[in-house]
Design brief:
Blueprint: E1 5-9, H1 19-26, H2 31-39, E2 43-46, E3 49-50, E4 62-66, E5 84-87, E6 91-96, H3 113-124, E7 131-132, E8 141-147, H4 150-161, E9 166-174, E10 181-185, E11 188-190, E12 198-200, E13 209-217, E14 221-228, H5 235-242, E15 265-273, E16 280-284, H6 289-298
Parallel strand pairs: 8-15
Antiparallel strand pairs: 1-4, 2-3, 2-4, 5-6, 6-8, 7-8, 9-14, 9-15, 10-13, 11-12, 13-14, 15-16
Length: about 300
């Protein structure tokens, strides 16, 4: 099995740093990750020779980190045809179909997206567990970003905190919005006693902000482009239901179900900064057939 590794050539700006400071302060390594490398079979090299993290770097040194194989997860590998639309040594982007959960749960331990990724990794002899960065609800379709190892997962998690992983959703909602473009800012919390349903709760909810723009209006529905400033569970569904425009097909939050059998929500676009190549990756996928059919019936 091939080990995951990363290398950097030290320039004048980073000389005189210790290996530890370079990795932690310049490359985003956590203390926990450095400890795992030391204790779980990884290694850190300078010019292909083992080194101590206290050693001082000089211009021209090549620092290489060889990551230990990640502990196997209990996710069952399940053969499935993943719609992989982008892959490099650090990322996967998969177009998830509606009706498939992102991660296993008590009700489905075998047929989730993570099960398919586990099987894919097994075929590729990829020495990492499953790190889904941008999960989608089971009945939401669209683009899902996956980190292929825990180091890049930590870097992408930091991008998420800084709101620099951008996603655009397309949705069909009930009725015509009074304002064609706007922002919904309303805190969201779990709705007791349910463990699934969420609600707007002004006293106990967490900050939640949704931006939308109407792409097309019809007599009984609207087609929206939506971007999230925060990422609360069910945020889009809760926000539009709360303002009286639930998503078509959303039985949990009051959506009309005669035109589509699941919430009409699709993650159509994703953009993020590649943490090593310092370039933007921008990907888009069109609406799935059920939403296209629903949209056509409204025209």
């Amino acid at each position: 099995m091939v080990s995951i590794q990363k290398s950097w050539v030290i320039d004048q700006n980073h000389s005189r740093l210790t290996v530890k400071d370079f990795l932690q302060k310049k490359q985003g390594f956590s203390r926990r990750l450095l400890t795992a490398i030391k204790q779980d079979g990884g290694s850190i090299l300078i010019d292909n020779h083992p080194c101590y993290v206290s050693e001082t770097l000089e211009p021209g040194h090549e620092v290489t980190v060889i990551f230990p194989e990640e502990a196997p997860s209990n996710i069952v590998p399940t053969k499935m045809d993943l719609d992989i639309i982008y892959e490099d040594e650090d990322h996967l982007v998969i177009n998830k179909p509606a009706g498939q959960a992102s991660m296993p749960s008590m009700t489905d331990r075998v047929y989730t997206l993570a099960n398919g990724i586990a099987w894919y990794y097994q075929q590729k002899n990829h020495p990492a567990t499953i790190h889904i960065v941008t999960r989608l609800d089971a009945d939401t379709s669209g683009l899902v970003l996956v980190a292929k190892h825990r180091y890049v997962h930590s870097l992408l998690a930091e991008q998420q905190k800084q709101n620099s992983i951008h996603r655009m959703y397309e949705a069909l909602v009930t009725g015509v919005l009074e304002q064609a473009e706007g922002t919904i800012s309303a805190p969201i919390s779990r709705k007791p006693p349910s463990i699934i349903e969420r609600e707007v709760n002004w006293s106990a909810g967490q900050r939640a902000v949704t931006h939308y723009k109407t792409a097309a209006s019809f007599s009984s529905a609207s087609f929206l482009h939506i971007e999230l400033e925060t990422g609360r569970t069910h945020q889009i569904r809760v926000h539009f239901s709360n303002i009286g425009h639930p998503l078509l097909g959303d039985d949990l939050y009051g959506g009309e179900q005669t035109m589509i059998s699941r919430q009409a929500l699709h993650c159509a676009y994703i953009e993020w900064q590649h943490p090593f190549q310092k370039r933007k990756i921008k990907l888009k996928r069109e609406l799935p057939s059920d939403m296209q059919k629903c949209l056509a019936s409204l025209r």
